[in-house]
Write a structure and sequence with these properties.
The complex is a heterodimer.
Chain A lengths: L2 E2 L19 H23 L4 E2 L2 E2 L32 H4 L1 H8 L2 H10 L30 H21 L2 E3 L6 E3 L3 H18 L2 H9 L8 H15 L1 H23 L10
Chain B lengths: L1 E9 L13 E9 L5 H11 L19 E4 L2 E4 L14 E4 L6 E3 L2 E2 L2 H9 L19 H8 L9 H5 L1 H4 L10 H11 L9 H5 L12 H5 L6 H17 L2 H10 L5
Parallel strand pairs in B: 1-5
Antiparallel strand pairs in B: 1-2, 3-4, 3-5, 6-7
Helix pairs in contact in B: 6-9
Classes of the chains: A mainly alpha, B alpha+beta.
Chain lengths: 267, 257
Amino acid sequence: MNEVDLSGITRRFGRTARRDAWWVKPLIVFLCLSSFVIYVTWAAFQGKNYAYGPYLSPLYSPELFGDSPHRWLGPKPGGWPSFLPWSPALLILWAPGLFRLTCYYYRGAYYKAFLVSPAACSVSEGRRRYTGERAFPLVLQNVHRYLMYIALIFLVILAHDVWTAMWFTDTRTGSSSFGIGVGTMVLAANVVFLAGYTFGCHSLRHWVGGIKDRLSGSPVQRQIYRCAGCFNRRHMLWAWMSLFWVAFTDIYVRLCATGVWRDWRII
Amino acid sequence: METVTFQIWRGGPARRGGLAGGGKLVDYSIPVSEGMVVLDAVHKIQAEQANDLAVRWNCKAGKCGSCSAEINGIPRLMCMTRLKDLPLDKPVIIQPMKAFPLIRDLVTDVSWNFRVKKTIKPFRPRAADAADGTWRIAQSDIDRVQEFRKCIECFLCQDVCHVLREHHLQDEFAGPRLLVYTAALEMHPLDVEDRLQDLKRAQGIGLCNITKCCTTVCPEEIRITDNAIIPMKERVADRYYDPLKRLFRALRGRKKN
């Protein structure tokens, strides 16, 4: 019998007896989320090439103020600070961004990947002080439910963008006609993925029925609650699919607008 | 038969500090056969090489929750961990649960869980539905909490939870198992007791940062985080962190805990 002395076990960062590649998952999450944040920040500050024909990038929707035909209220507001670069995305992107930032799934994911709290299950953090989500600033994660309400409004707006993306304007006559292009499908898939993600939100599930102990007397509410539960079971999958597809949709519209890609009309 | 080396933690509570005390990993090599689980290997070692090896076990069927340990660093039931699912080209490391005080070898003192459990407000049903003193419950209302009744109290979720394991906040945080227990009571369609204040303060639900490690290790596959902890966090948020709901409660004249 060989004896291995392990009396030196301490709370050193990364210390674990795990034999698997526990660091792979947090590393992938770190790379994916970092890439997304970098791309979205870059795209948001561009302030151009976010619309092409009837298509509007979801990073810029709703376009409250701007120069494209999709704008709601008018051009760039006169009181915009001169030191801040202008982009219509800066007015609205905080809402979906904070919705994801405070999402229960993403919280668990980035606590591991970015804050290493812990990096993986049963892997030492090496951190002495821990206050969890009951102290500032993480106690602010409880604002998630309000952001969920806003996300639902965004979903309606993005669905309307898909409808708009079905009406193509003839540049010669100025008349619009119904049609479906690849871009329409890309925008529609974006709404589907975002809906799957939002409908599985833990706060939404609580709001539509989780708050109650008895739903048997409310068959419609019970059905809605069960439906939210179905989406919730795949919340992580919806979260990643919608994240990638939002970025891809922006890339698609941007490349069409710059003439790199050609949008094919299906109908 | 293939020979496999097991490194088993051997040590007692000689010095304060559990594993950091006086224990060590000891190598044992034994021949293994098809179908063996880790607990079989431990029993074989106990019978043939280390008669004084302390190990807690009972049903060997994943239902009593006694043989919890850390196998290659991951909290698991020894009786439900097949050797064929482990990399046997390297020694298999078997250690006691690290979140609890070590008694000896693979046996830990999990009595803290039961002490905390006693502090949770018990089931308090509403007034009886019928004149004969009985109640009526719809199956659809009880489905949600029946998932929590599958818990076998193996305490693997408590062991893997970094709040208990790493930060030793046992005085401030009840841990996943007891949050599941509280959720089962709080979400029960007959129960009228209010445990939200306790959830926030005594049980420290805000300390959970939803890493879902408890869900990952649960041998009964209870969705601890999604179905128990987060719904309780949402109810606590309703009460303490939602200004609009607070306003509505104030307008309706409801008393806050």
